[in-house]
Amino acid sequence: MSVPALELTGLTKSFGHAKIIRGIDLSIGKAERHAIIGPNGAGKSTLFNLITARFAPTKGTVKLHGEDVIGLQPYQINRKGLSRSFQITNIFPAMTVFENVRCALLWSQGYKYSFWNLVNNSRRLTEGADAILDQINLLERRNLPAGTLSYAEQRALEIGITIAGGADVIMLDEPTAGMSHSETDYITDLIMKVTEGKTLIMVEHDMGVVFGLADRISVLVYGEIIATGKPADVRADPKVQEAYLGAALEAEH
Amino acid sequence: MSNQLTTDPSKSAQRMRAGSMTMTLMPWILAAGALMLMPFIFTSSSALTIMNQMWITVIFALAYNMLLGQGGMLSFGHAVYAGVGGFACMHIMNASDFFASFPLPVLPVFGGIFGAGLAMIVGSFSTRSAGTVFAMISLGVGELIAASSVIIVAFFGGEEGISGDRTYAMPFFGNEFLQQINVYYLTSFWVLLSAALMYLWSRTPVGRMANAVRDNPERAEFLGYSARWVRYYSFVASGFFAGIAGGLFAINYEIVTEENLNTASSGVILLVTFLGGVGFFFGPIIGAIVFTLVQTVLSLQTELWAFYAGSLFLATVMFFPGGLAGLLMMHVPVFKLGKAKLLIEPYFKTLLPAAIGILGLCALVEMTFHFRHATKGDNEMTLFWTTFDSHTVLPWLIALAVTAVGLAIAKRTAPALKEAWSDANSAGEVS
What we know:
The complex is a heterodimer of chains A (253) and B (431).
Chain A: E1 6-15, E2 18-28, E3 33-37, H1 44-51, E4 59-64, E5 67-68, H2 74-79, E6 82-84, H3 97-106, H4 123-135, H5 151-164, E7 169-173, H6 181-194, E8 199-203, H7 207-213, E9 216-221, E10 224-229, H8 231-236, H9 238-252
Parallel strand pairs in A: 3-8, 3-9, 6-7, 7-8
Antiparallel strand pairs in A: 1-2, 1-4, 4-5, 9-10
Helix pairs in contact in A: 3-4, 3-5, 4-5, 5-6
Chain B: H1 13-41, H2 45-71, H3 79-94, H4 96-99, H5 107-126, H6 131-148, H7 153-156, E1 162-163, H8 180-202, H9 205-215, H10 217-221, H11 227-253, E2 255-256, H12 263-276, H13 283-301, H14 305-319, H15 323-329, H16 332-336, H17 341-373, E3 380-383, E4 386-389, H18 393-425
Antiparallel strand pairs in B: 1-2, 3-4
Helix pairs in contact in B: 1-8, 2-8, 2-11, 2-12, 2-13, 3-5, 3-11, 5-11, 8-11, 9-11, 12-13, 12-14, 13-14, 13-15, 17-18
């Protein structure tokens, strides 16, 4: 069996006495689209933050392509091919849309901290950034400050920034939060398109999006995964229905 | 960003580059021409002194803005890097054998090296975070080094400072820099070179990421960049150019003292940079020119120049946080829409009375100052080419009336200006 893209073993996080994540074992294969669902306060965002080193775990390991990444800084994990978006839009608001994407390309194109290259002279950077903008349909907004975009456009830009560096593991934290129906459809299509062939891990509340996109689903309740499996299996799982999904599914209809 | 011109996205990247190439080169050619011609327009030796001081302040302010405007780091102790660069150059001037081995125009490089060296040491712990922590460390280190000037006398020369003689350098094409005009061209060369290098720095990957880290350090970390290292590189580069400014100061004045590195000097450069505008590359240049003029020309006219400089700074912070550059650039969209004409009349109607009112206010301030501080019996004062007795009522009434009427008219016409402004900015909106 090949090495999983992401493997969590015994992952635990406590804030003081409060145990937020209570020992998570999860293995996500290459090119799998995996959704993490669960009620509010279940620890979904915390789990994301543990994987991406925003927080240090209390116990347990995180392996990216079989390599232990605990103790690394976010920027080091990013360089190993893991990229994430945030629940609250997290872009560079004072910079133009184009600059936002170009900054996301710099490291992956090997520019590092160089001060002997001029970014405007690199055709590869300009074309690469424009290609991403084309993919996320923001080419027309290219030269506007990112902070002036509409909410949905900012979310799209955030996804663009997240995928721009060519990471093969993409983590999206509630990409459709706060969106209208049409905007949700637009973002779902976009995610489908840009994560082709990549490993996707997403936290999402919208069940339509989850069942439309995910190959497998994990249900997180009170810091534990109570079920993992194919959408249909998870949907049928009585534990899941009891804990969460039943209510959520009813709300959908 | 701000320097990038809006381009049509449908055009190819290549065309955009060629277009922006001439657009970016043009200001530099004009600046070089202006620097060459200035001494022929302003021929007096005091004008040369003022311009030298101006260009040195320009370099220092641009270096400071690498931190404040581009990197989002507020430093209260940046004079230290310029000062140490200046002291290092002074010591090199006094090391006669070594100094005689190279021409004078090379000397500022050593100032830069020492400035950058100190920044490497301080930056290693101060750039861990931006914001308050960085500001406090910069203040502390600034005070510490300024205080060392009376302790480490061998390097800082105690209270007298260190002086030297620039003419002992190896002659540069036969030139020994005996005259002010020679120093002027040396300073001009360095201001152009430094400004160009700092501009180019802002277009490099690490310069671009400085903006990103300023806006959102966390996001930058998730793009593969360590926010701390990005800040560190900006900090060291800024220390380098500050050191160059310090070296030029040493060449110009042939003396460097504690004043070159104390908190007051650090405060001035913050003021200069902010006054000019931190959001645009050329902002600090405007700030340095305006402030130096206030400091030199206005200080000849009035003892209260610092009061006016402070008021100007306060007004900038409160009403135009974009600084003078921001104020200028606000008008770019208006010109692009071809509606600048709409503004001429309202500007005339509001700004002229406002200016007259403010001058009236200045007259009141000057008269109060004279009334309180002139020696007894010296009741005569001269203001705006008029000599009068500051102890009589009439001048006060006139000044008061001018102030009140000027400001009242400005207040009356302000709504019309506001309306004209929004008219001039509307139609064919950008987004």
